[in-house]
Amino acid sequence: MESTEKSPFQMVDPYIEKIKKSLITRYLGDNVPTVLIAIALFGLSIYFLTSKKRRNYPPAIHGTLPIIGNMLQLRERKPYQTLTRWAEKYGPIYRLRIGALNVVVLNSDDLIKEALVTKYDSISNRRLPLAVEILGHDKSTLVARDYGPHYSARKRHLVTHLLGPMAQKEKRSLRHELVVRMINGMFEDMPTEGKVVHMRHVLNNFLFENTMHQLFGFAPKEMYVPGIGFLFREQMCKILVDDPIDAISLIDWRSLWPIFKWASNEKVESVCKQAARQRDLLCEELLKMYKIQFALKGPTGCYADHLHQDAEFLPDKYSPILYILWESVIESVDTVSVASEWIIYELARNPHVQDRLYQEIKNVSGDRMINEDDMANLPYLGAVIKETLRLYNPVTVLFTRLTGEDMTLGGYNIPKGWDVLINQWGIGMDKRRWPDADVWDPERCLRDPSIDLGFKDFKITPFGGGKRMCPGIHMAMATLLVEVCGLVQHFEFSVPPDEGNADAESSQVSFTTHKATPLLAFTKPRVKGVLPS
Ligand code: HEM
User: What ipTM, to 2 d.p.?
Assistant: First the structure.
C-alpha cells in the first residue's frame, strides 16, 4: 500500500517523484544497494586521504613506532642534539611521539616568540616529571604552579623582595664582599708563578654562599643536622642541589604514559623520597638557625625575613616556606654554576679573548677593583657571557608546555592536550643564523646589540621567555658579571695540557649542561693581592 503521507517536496511537485523512480529503475535496476555502498566507500577513502591535510598538523618524524613512538630515536646521550638535527631535515616545527605524548618541537626564534609571548594564554602551564611533584611537595614550587592568581602573587613577592632589579641592587655590597672573599681564598697558598686550581669548587662555593646569604642571611661552612650528621658546605650543596637534580633527571615512564600515573615506580620514587627526606632535614635545620639569628639580630634583609613578615598575606599558605626557599637555592646555584664554569673554561682556552677582556676592565677601573656601577661600560664582558649562554645554554630544552586549548603555531593546528617543547639549544645553534655555530666567538654578540636574552629578542633564550621567563635573570646576570670580572681582573687563566679537561664535553642526559669533567685551570696572579675598592 502506498503511504498517504506526502513529503513537502512531493506536495510542491508530484511529477518529479515519478521521474526519479523511472530513472533509477532504468539505469540501476536492482543494483541500488551496491551502488550506494560503493559511493559511501569512495567518500570515506577521499575523507581519509585528505584528512591529514585538513588536520594540518606539523610534519611528523619518520620512524614512529606503536606504543613507544619516537623514544628509541631519542636514546642517544644528548637528545637536544637529535632534536636540532631533525630541525635541519623537517623544518623549524615538527611533531613526534614520546610514549603516549604528542609533542610539538619548536626550533626557531619567531616560533618561540609566537608560543611564549603571542599565544601565551593557550600554553601557560608546564607538564612536569612526577619527580618534580614529589620533590616540590605537589605544586609548592613556583616552577610547578599552574598560571593563576596564586602563581602571580608568589612570583610578585619573589621579584619584589629578592629577584627583581631593585631588590638585586640592594645586594651589590654583599656580592662585592663575597667576590673579594673568593679572590682572597684563591690567593692563599698561591705562588707568584701560579698553580692549578679546581675552579668548579671555587665557583660553587662562591655561588652557594651568595645564594644562602640572600635567602637566609647566613651561609654555614659546616653544620650538624639531626638525622643526617655533620655536613660540610659541599655536602650541603649536594643535598640541596645535586641530588634533587639527579632525581629529576631520571626517566620515569609514568610521565610518558600519564594513564599509568597511579602505578608505582619503585626506583624513581625511592630516589626522590630519599633526596626529599635529606633536603627536608637540612632545610628545617637551616630554618631553625634562621629563627635564632632573627631572635638575636632582628631582620637582615634576606628573603626569609620577607616570607615570615608576609606569611599571613601570601595567598598560598600551603606552600611551606621551606619549599619556597629551597626552590631558589636549586634554581640559582646550579644554572649559574654551569654558566660560570664554561665562561672560565673558554677564557682559559682563548687567551686573546681573555686579554681583550682584561684590557677592557683595566681601561674602565684602572688600579682599583671593579664594581657593579662599572658594568654598563663593559660591553665585551657582556658579549663573553651571552656567547657562552648561546653555546652552552644551561637549560637546553624547556620543560614542555601543555596546550590548554586548540591553537595554531607556525600556521599548523595543535590540539588541546599536546605538549610544546622549546629547543633553546637548537635556536642558539641554528646554522642559518649563526655561521660556525659550534665555535665560541664573543664578537658575534658584540656585533648584534639587539640580543637581549629573551626580553624582546629571541635569538638566544637561555632564560626562556614571555610571562614565565626565568625571574632570576637579574640575579644570574649580576652574579656572573661581578664574578667573572673579579676573577679576570686578578688572575690569568689557562688550561693545563695534562689535566684531561681540554675537551668541551658537557655531561649526558642531565637537566643542565654541566661540563663533564670539573674545570682545573692553571691560575696565575696578575696582582699581589685584592685591589682596593
Ligand atoms: C644562568 C642562570 C639561569 C638560567 C640559565 C635559568 C634558566 C631558566 C629557565 C630556562 C627557566 C624556564 C623559563 C620558561 O619556561 O620560559 C627558568 C625558570 C625559573 N628560574 Fe631560572 N635560570 C637561571 C637562574 C635563576 C636564578 C638565579 C633564580 C633565582 C632563584 C632562578 C629562578 C627561577 C624560577 C623561580 C623559575 C620558574 C619561573 C616560572 O615558572 O614562572 N633562575 N630559569
Answer: 0.99
Nearest to 427 by CA among 80, 102, 95, 70: 80
Q: Is the distance from CB of 440 to CB of 387 less than 8 angstroms? A: yes
Q: What is the pLDDT of residues 422-452, one digit of tens each?
A: 999 999 999 889 999 999 999 999 999 999 9
Helix, strand, coil shares of the chain, percent, nearest 5, are 55, 10, 35
- From the CA of 331, how far away is ligand 1's center (Å)? 6
The amino acid at residue 514 is H
List the strands of the sheet with 93-98, edge to edge. Answer: 93-98, 101-106, 419-422, 401-402, 125-126
Q: How far is the CA of 515 from the centre of ligand 1 (A)?
A: 19
Residue 470 is assigned to a ligand binding site: yes
The preferred substitution site among 342, 470, 479 for testing ligand 1, maximizing ligand atoms within 8 Å of CB, is 470
Q: How far apart are CA 162 and CA 142, in angstroms?
A: 14
Domains within the chain, CATH numbers bracketed: 8-55 (no CATH), 71-525 (1.10.630.10)
The whole-angstrom separation of Cα 16 and Cα 24 is 12
Ligand 1: which atom is nearest the Cα of residue 395? 10
As a whole number of angstroms, the distance between CA 180 and CA 183 comes to 5
Q: Which atom of ligand 1 is nearest to the CA of 479?
A: 27
Please give the Cα distance from 448 to 465 (Å, whole number): 19
Q: Is the CB of 186 under 6 A from ligand 1?
A: no
**Residue from 331, 332, 467 whose mutation best tests the ligand 1 pocket (most atoms within 8 A of CB):** 331
Classify residue 401 by burial, with Cβ atoms within 10 Å: 0-12, 13-18, 19+. buried
Which neighbouring-strand residues pair with 230? 224
Decide: helix, strand or coil at residue 414: strand
pLDDT in tens, 457-498: 999 999 999 989 999 999 999 999 999 999 999 999 998 876
Residue 419, phi then psi, degrees to nearest 5: -100, 140
Cα–Cα dist 181/203, whole Å: 12
What spatial distance separates the first Cα and last Cα of the chain, rounded to whole Å?
A: 111
